[in-house]
Amino acid sequence: MNVDQRLIGVLIGVVALLVVSSGVGAILSTRVTSDGQRAVIDNLNARTKAWWIMVIVLVIAFAFGRVGTLTLFAFASFFALREFITLTPTRAGDYVPLLLSFFVLLPAQYALIGYDRYGIFAIFIPVYAFLLLPTVAVFAADTEDFLSRCAKLQWGVMICVYCISYAPALLFLRIPGYEGSDALLIVYLLLIVQLSDVLQYVFGKLLGRTKLAPRVSPSKTVEGLLGGGLSATAIGGALFPLTPFTFFESLAMSFVIVAMGFVGGLTLSAVKRSLGAKNWGALIEGHGGMLDRLDSVSFAAPIFFHLTRFFFA
Predict the structure, then answer these.
(1) Which of 198, 160, 187 is nearest to 295 (CA)?
(2) Is 138 a domain residue?
(3) Is 71 domain-assigned?
(4) Among residues 95, 94, 100, which one has the least CA distance to residue 149?
(5) In contact, 294 and 302? CB cutoff 8 Å
(6) What is the pLDDT of residues 266-309, one digit of tens each?
(7) Which of 99, 170, 172, 208 would be a feasible disulfide site paired with 221, CB 3.0-4.6 Å?
C-alpha cells in the first residue's frame, strides 16, 4: 500500500487535535467545582487517552500496509467476539462451534479479504458459517436452548467478524483515479464514526433534554443526536478531498455512516441491556470493551463499503 500524503496530513491533524484535547482536559480538570462536572471531564480525559492508544496502533498497522491493517482488524474482531461470547451464556455443547468461530471462520474471513476474493468473503459467513455452526452443534446432542444458543453465536460472528471485516475490505476496492489512497477510506469511515459519537456525547451533555431511548441508552438524547449527527455529517462533507467523492456525495456518505453508526450503537446497547451489562468489556479505559468502540463501525462499515463499491469502484 503506497503512502498517500493526504493520509500523513490527516494523521498529523488527528494527533494535533488529541494534543489540544489533552491540554484542554488537563486545564479543565483543575477548574471543575462540582462532582458532576468532574465526572464528565474525567470521562473525556479517559476517552482522550484511549484515542491516543488507538491512533498509535492504527498508525503502526498502516505502516505495515494491507497485511498490518488486516491483522489489526482481525485482532479487533477476535476481542469483540470474545466479549460477545463472554456475556452470552454457553454450554459444553457449544465448545466445537466456538473453536470453529474463533480459529477457523474468523481467520478465513480475513484471509479471503486479503486474497481479494469478494465473491466468496461476501457470502462466506452469511451462508456457509450460518449453516455450519448449527450443523456442528447438533452432534453434541445438547438440545437445551438449542435455537437461542445457535442464534446468539451466529449473531456474534456476523457482527464481530463479518461486519467489522468490511472496514479493512475498503483497502481492496478498485476505484479509478484513487489508486494508492485506499487507506484514506478507512480513516474517513473511522473519523466520522468517532466524531459522531463524541459530538453526540458533547451536544447531549450541553443541550440534551429529551431522552431518545431511556430504557436502552439513558445517555442518548434527541438534541445530542441532531446536534452531533448533523455536525459530524457536515464535517464528513468537508472531508471530501480525502475521498473519491464530490462534496455532496461525501455529505450523503457521511450522513449514511452517522445514521448507521447511531443505529448500530443503539442496537448493541439493547443487546447489552438484555444481558444485564453496562459495557461489553473493560479492555479500553474510558471506552469499555472493544465492541463498545466498534458497535457503530459494525453497522456502518458494510453499508459504506457496498455503496462505495456500487457507485464508485
Answers:
(1) 160
(2) yes
(3) yes
(4) 94
(5) no
(6) 999 999 888 888 888 777 665 678 898 899 999 999 999 999 99
(7) 208
For 116, phi then psi, to 5°, come to 60, 45
* CA dist., res. 191 & res. 238, Å (int): 12
Give the count of domains, the chain.
1
Lowest average pLDDT, out of 37-41, 150-154, 226-230, goes to: 37-41
Q: Residue 1 has what pLDDT?
A: 43
Long-range contacts of range 236-242, CB-CB < 8 Å, 24 or more positions apart? 236/188, 236/191, 236/192, 236/195, 239/188, 239/191, 239/192, 241/6, 242/6, 242/10, 242/184, 242/187, 242/188
Residue 299 in domain? no
pLDDT at 84 over 60: yes
**Terminal CA-to-CA distance of the chain, rounded, Å?**
17
- With beta carbons less than 8 A apart as the criterion, state whether 106 and 81 touch: yes
What pLDDT is stored for residue 12 in this prediction?
87
Query: What's the rounded mean pLDDT across residues 52-78?
Result: 91
Q: How far apart are CA 199 and CA 165, in angstroms?
A: 25
* 283 is a domain residue: no
Q: Find all residues with CB under 8 Å of 157, minimum gap 6, and list them.
A: 81, 101, 105, 106, 125, 129, 133
Q: What is the pTM of this model?
A: 0.90
Q: Given this model, what pLDDT does residue 158 score? A: 97
Give me the mean pLDDT over the 123-134 stretch.
96
User: What is the DSSP-derived secondary structure letter of residue 229?
Assistant: H
Q: Can you spell out the DSSP letters for 44-100? A: HHHHHHHHHHHHHHHHHHHHTHHHHHHHHHHHHHHHHHHHHHHHS---GGGHHHHHH
